[in-house]
Inverse folding.
C-alpha cells in the first residue's frame, strides 16, 4: 500500500492503527465531547518551511477542520466557533487549547489502548 510520502510505506500494524484511529474519531473533538471522522495527522518537527514528518507510529486523528482548517459550512469562523482553533490556521491557539502534538499523541495512544481492551475483552474496565 504505497502512500508516496517521506515516511515510506506503512506496515500492516500501522494501517490497523489508522483504522482504529478512524473508529475513535478526532482527538480534539473527543476533548470537546464530540465524535467526528478524522484524517490521519503525522507529527512533524522543524520550522515552518523545513518540517519533517515523523514515522507512521507518530499519528493521531484530527478532523478536516482541526487538521487542515477545512470548514464544512464554507463560512469563515464557523468552524472555529463550533470546534475551536484549527492546527493549520492557528497553531498557537490550537496548542493552547488542545495541547502539543506530543500531548495529543499520548491522548490518542490512551484512547487506542482503551479501544483495544474493549475490542478484545468486551469490557472497558
Amino acid at each position: 500500500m504505497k502512500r508516496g510520502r517521506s515516511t515510506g510505506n506503512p506496515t500492516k500494524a500501522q494501517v490497523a492503527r489508522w483504522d482504529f484511529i478512524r473508529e475513535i474519531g478526532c482527538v480534539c473533538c473527543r476533548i470537546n465531547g464530540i465524535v467526528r471522522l478524522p484524517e490521519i495527522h503525522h507529527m512533524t518537527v522543524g520550522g515552518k518551511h523545513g518540517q519533517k514528518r515523523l514515522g507512521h507510529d507518530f499519528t493521531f486523528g484530527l478532523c478536516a477542520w482541526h487538521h487542515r482548517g477545512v470548514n464544512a459550512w464554507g463560512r469563515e469562523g464557523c468552524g472555529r466557533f463550533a470546534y475551536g482553533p484549527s492546527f493549520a490556521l492557528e497553531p498557537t491557539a490550537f496548542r493552547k487549547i488542545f495541547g502539543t502534538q506530543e500531548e495529543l499523541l499520548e491522548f490518542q495512544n490512551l484512547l487506542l489502548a482503551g479501544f483495544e481492551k474493549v475490542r478484545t475483552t468486551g469490557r472497558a474496565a
